[in-house]
Structures are given as structure tokens and as C-alpha cells.
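quick one: pyridoxal-5'-phosphate bound model?
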Amino acid sequence: MVGREISVENLVPEYVRALVPYAPGKPIEELERELGITGCIKLASNENPLGPSPRALEAIAAVAPSIHRYPDGNVFNLKKALAERLSIEPSWLVFGNGSNELIELAARTFLRPGESAVAGNPSFSVYGSVVQAMNGRMHLVPLVDGRHDLEGMAEAITADTRIVFIANPNNPTGAMNDAGELAAFMEKVPDHIIVVVDEAYYEYVTREDYPDSMSYVREGRNVIVLRTFSKIYGLAGLRIGYGMARPELVDAMNRVRQPFNANAVAQAAALAALGDDDHMRKSIQVNYEGKVFMYALFQEMGVGYYPSEANFIWLELERDAKEVYSALLHKGIIVRPMGPTQIRVSIGLPEENRRFAEAFKEIMGGGIE
Ligand SMILES: Cc1ncc(COP(=O)(O)O)c(C=O)c1O
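yep, here:
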């Protein structure tokens, strides 16, 4: 056991030791094990409550006998189908093990140790982790009204900045920057900066002034647009997302990524899910109706929230978020504590939303045991 005598400080770089592990939403099975109950619901990770498309399930069954083969490292079929849908060439697409991996790939490909990136705060925590894991520095710019302060973010760019991360709509607030705001930002941002526009919730957006971020990609700007099959497509457990950028940037990321980072089952399921417009329509509808229900609840209760362009809502509770979170857990409902007095709740099925509403009213109106 000689290895144990060497201190971790000597083995692990300081910037890795300083990383804060990602805190995922609590899995349903874990809560059920802890409480010794069944029937818990999870409104914590912005998943599609309808589940995956039935077409994706069929595709998974069809591909299962072939999983002794390596996947297609070039993702030919899915890339071709997506390229047609998006009216771009296949060479403008890169795939990842979830869009999470593409965020990491952006940092590993474009950031040198000691250089910096810019992101909003609060925003998706993975931006900060991947930058730190590269021994980079992150400039965090506070949100304004739940959305990115794009003017402030442009001003936060310094000589060593390489990447700006913009989640639009933003997670955890659900608020979005409009086309005018992004256009003004794109005018200011120097050409050598890689702008990562993370559109994980793109398909849920209903506002007409949502930016057409792909237009900057098409213009040849250094913009990478990220989307995912984890949210509206209901394939979070399979881990597949994609990025769109000019071919030179895609080529650079392809050199850094693992050769088989998009697995065979995920590729087949994503291709099938992409063709299921009916499932997409239903998912949008359930989410829209769920938001209307939740907004009415929060207005009735006087709880502050941001109108959301995604499938979750950020709440300002004006009381201890951890206590409310744990009181909800005891009623079998998992949400996400986000700040000292804030939680984020994902939109569920109508019956899940009703169950949340009942428990939430009881907890907020009465006491917390
Ligand atoms: C803004 C944003 N980006 C990226 C992701 C990562 O999604 P995935 O890796 O499952 O594609 C999430 C997931 O919650 C997210 O909210």
C-alpha cells in the first residue's frame, strides 16, 4: 500500500481538488429506498414526463441484438437526418455523450490552461466545472431578471477569454434572451471568442422573439449551438446531444472527442425520436398546460417565479429552500434546491403537478415538521 503514503495534494492538481462535484437531482429509487415507500415523483431534472417516444423504444429493441458491435463513430444516419432537418451539411454537426460532453469538449478544444471563459450566474453549473478542470478561470456575470446580462458578459471578456457560455433559455431560471439582445451581443463580441449557445430547451420555447442562433453559425461566426435528446425527446438516460458549428470547429472537436462517444443504442433511439412529430407535439402541449397550472398556483399562493420558456420553473420562496425541499421529499416529491431561498421545479404530468401543488400548499401554508 505504498501509494497511500503519497498525499493526495501531490497526486491531484490544486485546480482539480477545488472542483465541486455535480449535484444531480435525487433518483426516485434512492428516495424510495430511504423512505421505505413507493410512488415517489421526480420533478427535479427537467426530464420529459411522458417518457420516450414509442418509436424510440422500438428502435432500441431493434438495435439490441447488435450491441456487441462498436457504434458508428461518425454517426452517419442520425447526422444525415438531422442535417436534412436543419438544412445544413452533415460536416456542421458534432455529437456528444449528452450535450454535457459537448460543453466539456468546447473547453478541452478551445481553452488553454490559464485562459478564461465567461458565463452567467446562476446558470448551468457544468460550464464552471469544465473550465476549472482545464485549469481555466471563469468570469461569472450575475443574471438580470433571470436572464443573461449579455451587455455585462461582453464587458467581462478580457484579453485571455476564449469562450462565452450562454444558456438560452437559461437553466435554472427558465428565462430567455431575445433576438435583439443576442444580436447586440454578437456585434460586440470579438471574432476570436467562441460563443457557445446552449439550447437544451429549444423545442419548448414559444416566444417569437427567440433568437435564430443558427443564423450566426451559418454566417460563419465562431458560434457553437448545442441541443440535446435528453429533454423534449425523453432520452436523458441514453446520453446523446449535438452541436452545430462551422466545419473547422467541428473538425477540431472531433479530434479531441472519444471515437465512440455516441453509443449505438442512443444513435438509433435518437434517429427514431427525431421522426416522431406526434410525441413532440404532445410533449409541448403537456408542458404548456403544466406551466399554466403552475403559474396559477404560484399566483394564488403569492410565490415569486420567472415565466419560463423551458420545462421547469424557478421559485423564490422567501424561506429556507432546503427545508421546503426536504419537506417535499418526505411527501415523496423530489424538486431541486437552487439557492438559499430558491427551488426549481420541473413540469410533470397533470397528476404529478396536482400532487406537487397539494404538498407545496400544505408545506408553505402550514409548517414544516
Ligand atoms: C442548459 C443545459 N445544458 C445542458 C444540459 C445537459 O444535458 P444533456 O447532457 O443531458 O444533454 C442541461 C441539463 O440539464 C441543461 O440544463
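The longest strand covers residues 161-167.
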